[in-house]
Amino acid sequence: DIQMTQSPSSLSASVGDRVTITCQASQDISNYLNWYQQKPGKAPKLLIYDASNLETGVPSRFSGSGSGTDFTFTISSLQPEDIATYYCQQYDNPLITFGQGTRLEIK
Amino acid sequence: EVQLVESGGGLVQPGGSLRLSCAASGFTFSSYSMNWVRQAPGKGLEWVSYISSSSSTIYYADSVKGRFTISRDNAKNSLYLQMNSLRDEDTAVYYCAREGGTTRMPPVDAFDIWGQGTMVTVSS
Fold it and tell me: What CA–CA distance (Å, rounded) separates B51 from B67?
């Protein structure tokens, strides 16, 4: 199975800060990488697909980049409503795997 | 409104069985591949199973292979997960999730619609 290593596991930042989360795959997955946001008690929500494509309706402060094994998710200016846990997900292999998640808090 | 609604969760003893359902509405269910994803209390997301739109292709995570069976009824706009030989570690919220795929333009190979989840507790 492809392992996804996400870092950091938790992050504290101030409103307006630029926030970056990384995800590393255990093997080359091209751009088959998605990012999700999950707020407490809610279902996950798709933010970024194919490593860098913004899902319809998602604010432009969210972005993604990378290919191969190394990927980055960025919030350009953190807003209070962005408090959530973020997960990367690979779909190169039929056996889909998620990163362990990054819990984002307001400082 | 595009919607997925899970049902069928509950408390079951180890070794028992449970059948989850996911009712789809607001979109052409038969055109989309579907998945089950679970989340143990306080833990991350774990993909469980995939079924293609026509049921011709099915995949399972190693942790559930041989115990869980995914199926769908396109006439009823419904997805199912039959769970047998349940273990303590199967305790989780179970989500059904739509795969955007090539039905969307441009194609979206990601889980673009999720249900609200149904809780499964395996305990004696």
Answer: 16
Closest Cβ opposite residue A101 in set B44, B47, B114: B44
- Give the pLDDT means over successive 10-residue stretches in chain B (124 positions): 97 98 97 97 97 96 97 98 98 97 85 98 96
For residue range A1-37, list pLDDT tens digits in order.
899 999 999 999 999 999 999 999 999 999 999 999 9
* Helix%, strand%, coil% for chain A, nearest 5: 5, 50, 45
A55 part of contact set with chain B, CB < 8 Å? yes
Which chain B residues touch A53 with a CB distance below 8 Å?
Answer: 106, 108
In A, residues 56-85, which contact B (CB 8 Å cutoff)?
none
- Give the residue from B101, B102, B48, B51 showing the smallest Cα distance to B72: B51
- 3-class state of residue A76 by DSSP: coil
User: In Å, how far is B71's CA from the nearest CA of chain A?
Assistant: 17
**Residue given tokens 């249900």 in the structure block:** B115
